[in-house]
C-alpha cells in the first residue's frame, strides 16, 4: 500500500461523484422526452427510425407487452449472432480465414456449442468468452455479431430499469412506457454521442483501429511473432460504457492495444460506473425526490469502498509463500515490498489493478486489467462476492439499479415487520405479491449459481459428464484444492451475474461448460429481469400514499445502513458455505505455507 495508491482511489471516487448529477440530469431529459442540445441533429434520425420500423412511440405498453417486446428483440438478436458466428468462414472481413479450411493452426473453431454460448453471452450483456477473440473471430463477427450486442444489450437493460422507475413514479396507471422508444432514445441520445467521443479519445491514447491483416514480425531470436490488430477502438468504447466487458483480445484491458496508458485506464474505469451512477439521480428526479436517489448511490458507494479497501490491502500484503521460499533476493524483495504483482501490469500497479478488479465486478462489466485468478484469496473474494450480491453495487446499465430497487423494497418490507406497519416505498404500499415477486429475483440468481456450481464440481471428471465427447480428456480446472473450486464457483457466479470476468484457470470451452454457462446467463438476465418488469406492472397501478408519522423514511442514513445489512444478509450469507470452501479456506491454508 502506498499514499499515491490511496490518492488515486480517492480521486476516482470524487470524480465519479462529481459526474453523477450532470449525467443524471441529461439522462432524465432524454428519457422524459425533454429537449437536449442534440435534439436538432438526432430528432430527424429518431423519427426516421420510427417510420421505417413501424414503431408508434406515443403508444405505451402494459408490463406484459413490454416484456414480450424485450424478449422477442433479444431472441432475434441471439439467433442473428449465432448465424454470423457459424457462417463467418464464408462471410467477408475475415482476412485471417478463421473458421475455414485455411484457418491458422492457432485458431479456435467456432463449434455449435461455442457459438451458442457466445451468442447468449453477448445477448445477455455478459460477454463471457470461452475463446481467445483475436484467434477465433473475424472482423465482421467482432463488429456486427458482438459489437452490435454491446450497444443493444446495454440499452435493453436501461429500458427495463426505466420501466421499474415508472412503476414507482406513476400513480394509478396501467402502462410503464414503450420499449421501442426507450431502446431507440437511449441508443441515439446517450450511447451514440458518448461512444463517438470516447472512441476518438481511446484512439488518441494508442488503441488500434484498422482492418489490416495481422502483422508477422521477427523476434530477436529469429522466430516469427503474429501481432493481432483490428477495429479495436470503436469496440472498446461501447464495451466499457455499455458495461459489456468482452475484449477484442484475450488479455482484455490488460492488453496495450485496448488499454495503453494509465490515463486510458482511469477513464475506462470511470466509464464503467458513470451510467449506473447517473441512473440513481434519474430515479430521484422521476420520483420527485432526489434524496431517494442519493440514498441508493450512498449504499452503492459504501459497499464499493469496502470492497476496494479489502482488495487493495490483500494484494499489498502479498502471498507469504513467496517470502518464505528460498528464492533469489530480487524475488524476495518483490514479495516483501511489492505485494502480489503476479498477473498484473507493471504500468498500472497494485492500486489501479485492485481498483479495476473491484469496479468491473461491482458493475456487470467483466473487463479486466489484471488476472483475477492470480489475486490473493481475499483479493479474489471481493470480485466474487460483488457478483454474488446480485450485481447491484452500481451494477450493469439499468440492471444494477433495478436490482438495488428490489432490495430496497425488501428492506422496507422488513422494516415494516419490525414496527408493525404496512411497508411503503416512495409513496407506494408494498404488498404480499410485491415481496413474492422481489424474492423471485433473489432466488433465481442464487439457484443458478449454487446448482450449476454443484454440477460443475461433480462433473469435473470427464467420465461423469454426459455432455462431453466420448473418450475425450479434459483438464478443466488448472488448480487443485480450494482454488480449483473457486474457479468453478466464479464461472457460474460470473455467468449468472452477467459479468463475464473469470478465474481463467478454468478451461471452459467444452460442451458441458458452454451449455451450462449459457443457461446460467439466460437465467441471470431474463429470469431476473421479468420479475422486475412484473413488479413495475404491479406498482404502477397503486395510488400514491402520502407519508405519515408512521412512514419509515427511505432517504436517511438509517435506511442506507438497513439496506446494506439486508443486502449482506440476503446476498452474502446465501453463498457463505460456498465461499468458505473456496477463497476463505484458501486464505487460511496460504498462511500455513501449504501449496497444492
Please explain how this structure is put together.
The chain is mostly helical. Helix content is 61%, strand content 2%. Strands 1-2 form a two-stranded antiparallel ribbon. A two-stranded antiparallel sheet has the order 3-4. Strand 3 and strand 4 (428-429) form a beta hairpin. Helix 1 (3-31) packs across helix 8, helix 4 (112-123) runs parallel beside helix 17 and helix 9 packs antiparallel against helix 13. The longest helix is centred in the N-terminal third of the chain and has 31 residues, at 139-169. The chain is globular and about 80 Å long. The protein starts with a helix and ends in a 6-residue tail after the last helix. Residues 326-337 have low confidence and may be disordered.
Q: Helices, strands, pairings?
A:
Blueprint: H1 3-31, H2 39-53, H3 63-87, H4 112-123, H5 139-169, H6 179-205, E1 215-218, E2 224-227, H7 232-241, H8 262-286, H9 290-317, H10 320-324, H11 329-337, H12 349-362, H13 377-388, H14 399-419, E3 424-425, E4 428-429, H15 432-458, H16 481-496, H17 511-539, H18 557-572, H19 576-590
Antiparallel strand pairs: 1-2, 3-4
Average pLDDT confidence is 88
Low-confidence stretches: 326-337
Cα gyration radius (Å): 24 Å
Name the structural class. mainly alpha
Distance between the termini: 28 Å
Q: What topology, given as strand order, has the largest sheet?
A: 1-2
The share of residues in helices is 55-70%
How much strand content do the residues show? under 5%
SSE arrangement, N to C: HHHHHHEEHHHHHHHHEEHHHHH
Tell me the number of strands. Answer: 4
Specify the overall morphology.
globular
Oligomeric form: single chain
Number of helices: 19
- What's the story with the biggest beta sheet? 2 strands, antiparallel
Amino acid at each position: 500500500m502506498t499514499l499515491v495508491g490511496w490518492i488515486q482511489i480517492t480521486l476516482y471516487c470524487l470524480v465519479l461523484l462529481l459526474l453523477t448529477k450532470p449525467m443524471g440530469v441529461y439522462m432524465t431529459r432524454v428519457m422524459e422526452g425533454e429537449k437536449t442540445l442534440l435534439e436538432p441533429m438526432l430528432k430527424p434520425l429518431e423519427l426516421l427510425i420510427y417510420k421505417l420500423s413501424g414503431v408508434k412511440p406515443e403508444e405505451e405498453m402494459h408490463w406484459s407487452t413490454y416484456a414480450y417486446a424485450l424478449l422477442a428483440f433479444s431472441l432475434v438478436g441471439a439467433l442473428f449472432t449465432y448465424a454470423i458466428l457459424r457462417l463467418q468462414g464464408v462471410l467477408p472481413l475475415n482476412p485471417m480465414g478463421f473458421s475455414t479450411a485455411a484457418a491458422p493452426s492457432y485458431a479456435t473453431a467456432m463449434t455449435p456449442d461455442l457459438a451458442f454460448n457466445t451468442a447468449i453471452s453477448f445477448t445477455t450483456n455478459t460477454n463471457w468468452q470461452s475463446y481467445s477473440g483475436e484467434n477465433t473471430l473475424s472482423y465482421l463477427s467482432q463488429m456486427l455479431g458482438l459489437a452490435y450486442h454491446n450497444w443493444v444489450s446495454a440499452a435493453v437493460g436501461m429500458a427495463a430499469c426505466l420501466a421499474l422507475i415508472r412503476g414507482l413514479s406513476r400513480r394509478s396507471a396501467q402502462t410503464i412506457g414503450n420499449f421501442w422508444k426507450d431502446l431507440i432514445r437511449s441508443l441515439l441520445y446517450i450511447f451514440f454521442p458518448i461512444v463517438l467521443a470516447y472512441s476518438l479519445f481511446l484512439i488518441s491514447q494508442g488503441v488500434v483501429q484498422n482492418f489490416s491483416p495481422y502483422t508477422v514480425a521477427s523476434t530477436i531470436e529469429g522466430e516469427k511473432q503474429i501481432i493481432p490488430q483490428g477495429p479495436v477502438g470503436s469496440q472498446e468504447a461501447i464495451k466499457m460504457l455499455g458495461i459489456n466487458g468482452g475484449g477484442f483480445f484475450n488479455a482484455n484491458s490488460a492488453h496495450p492495444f485496448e488499454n495503453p496508458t494509465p490515463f486510458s485506464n482511469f477513464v475506462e474505469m470511470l466509464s464503467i460506473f458513470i451510467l449506473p451512477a447517473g441512473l440513481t439521480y434519474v430515479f430521484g428526479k422521476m420520483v420527485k425526490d432526489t434524496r431517494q436517489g442519493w440514498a441508493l448511490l450512498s449504499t452503492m458507494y459504501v459497499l464499493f469502498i469496502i470492497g476496494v479497501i479489502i482488495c487493495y490491502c490483500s494484494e499489498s500484503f502479498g502471498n507469504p509463500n513467496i517470502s518464505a521460499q528460498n528464492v533469489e533476493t530480487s524475488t524476495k524483495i518483490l514479495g516483501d515490498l511489492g505485494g502480489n504483482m503476479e498477473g498484473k501490469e507493471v504500468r498500472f500497479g497494485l492500486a489501479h489493478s485492485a481498483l479495476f478488479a473491484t469496479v468491473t465486478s461491482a458493475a456487470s462489466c467483466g473487463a479486466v486489467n489484471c488476472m483475477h485468478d492470480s489475486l490473493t484469496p481475499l483479493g479474489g473474494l471481493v470480485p466474487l462476492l460483488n457478483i454474488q450480491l446480485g450485481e447491484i453495487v452500481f451494477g450493469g446499465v439499468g440492471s444494477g439499479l433495478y436490482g438495488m430497487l428490489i432490495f430496497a423494497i425488501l428492506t422496507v418490507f422488513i422494516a415494516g415487520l419490525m414496527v408493525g406497519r404496512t411497508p411503503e416505498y416512495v409513496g407506494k404500499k408494498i404488498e404480499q405479491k410485491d415481496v413474492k415477486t422481489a424474492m423471485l429475483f433473489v432466488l433465481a440468481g442464487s439457484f443458478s449459481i449454487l446448482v450449476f456450481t454443484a454440477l460443475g464440481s461433480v462433473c469435473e471428471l470427464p467420465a461423469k459428464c454426459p455432455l462431453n465427447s466420448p473418450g475425450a480428456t479434459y483438464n478443466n480446472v488448472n488448480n487443485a484444492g480450494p482454488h480449483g473450486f473457486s474457479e468453478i464457483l466464479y464461472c457460474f457466479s460470473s455467468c449468472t451475474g452477467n459479468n463475464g470476468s473469470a478465474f481463467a484457470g478454468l478451461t471452459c470451452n467444452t460442451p458441458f461448460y458452454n451449455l451450462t454457462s449459457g443457461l446460467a446467463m439466460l437465467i441471470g438476465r431474463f429470469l431476473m429481469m421479468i420479475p422486475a418488469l412484473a413488479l413495475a406492472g404491479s406498482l404502477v397501478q397503486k395510488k400514491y400514499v402520502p407519508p405519515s408519522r408512521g412512514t419509515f423514511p427511505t432517504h436517511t442514513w438509517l435506511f442506507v445502513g438497513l439496506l446494506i445489512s439486508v443486502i449482506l444478509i440476503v446476498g452474502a450469507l446465501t453463498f457463505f458455505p460456498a465461499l468458505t470452501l473456496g477463497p476463505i479456506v484458501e486464505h487460511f491454508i496460504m498462511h500455513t505455507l501449504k501449496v497444492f
